[in-house]
Amino acid sequence: GAVVSQHPSWVICKSGTSVKIECRSLDFQATTMFWYRQFPKQSLMLMATSNEGSKATYEQGVEKDKFLINHASLTLSTLTVTSAHPEDSSFYICSALAGDGDTQYFGPGTRLTVL
Amino acid sequence: GNSVTQMEGPVTLSEEAFLTINCTYTATGYPSLFWYVQYPGEGLQLLLKATKADDKGSNKGFEATYRKETTSFHLEKGSVQVSDSAVYFCALSGSAGNMLTFGGGTRLMVKP
Q: Closest partner residue to A102 among B32, B45, B102, by Cβ?
């Protein structure tokens, strides 16, 4: 149980285009999901908290207009990187908060490369 | 604010050696503590957790005990395998919104 999927697992796009990443909780409902960014050999940096049916809460320094988050259902959150640039290239990981309200289960990550 | 400090890696061990990865934390209140493992190119997998003082989390031969008096949650395994090679993250949950605070990660390399 407690499986979280992400799609796509990797994506290459041209500078200026937008990319959407999906995060799904497959066998449980999650009112809260989180989006992280991870640079090589570094820890995870929380970007935003996604709450079903309401606006996401962004961490300081994260541009909300660039990283659009939509949590349309209890099993799906999406992150759209708008007008992507090479500096947005990174490993993006989502997590979903389990029913115990305490444990996060993580997706396998999406590697984004912007040319 | 909350913080987690892990021993820096990489930690290199021979197969069947004993493993300890130190983790200490600073937090207000009574956080839950977690160990996550990340294999190359993958997301994080929950390894074990403990929710209150003196709890011991265990999974796949790994153990960690929630020590409030020393604010520690050290990860141990009696006999590591090559397949345990990965990056291990210590984390705590207790902030508003159940956000996780991560340590910097410790890379473990196990040689045959």
A: B32
Q: Identity (one letter) of the amino acid at A103?
A: T
- Which among B1, B34, B2, B5 is positioned nearest to B105, based on CA atoms? B5
CA B112 from centre of chain: 23
Q: Is the pLDDT of residue A1 over 70?
A: no
Contacts of residue B45, Cβ cutoff 8 Å, sequence gap at least 6:
A106, B36, B37, B38, B39
Q: Which token pair is A39?
A: 């640079």
Query: A113 to chain B, minimum CA–CA distance in Å?
Result: 14
Q: Is B91 in contact with B36 (CB distance < 8 Å)? A: yes
Q: What secondary structure letter does DSSP report for A91?
A: E
Distance CA A34, CA A58 (A): 10
State whether B89 and A43 contact (CB < 8 Å).
Answer: yes
A6·B34 Cβ contact <8 A: no
B30-89 per-position pLDDT tens digit: 899 999 999 988 889 999 999 999 999 999 999 999 999 999 999 999 999 999 999 999
Query: Which tokens hold the place of A30?
Result: 């999650």
With 90 as the cut, is the pLDDT of residue B95 above it?
no
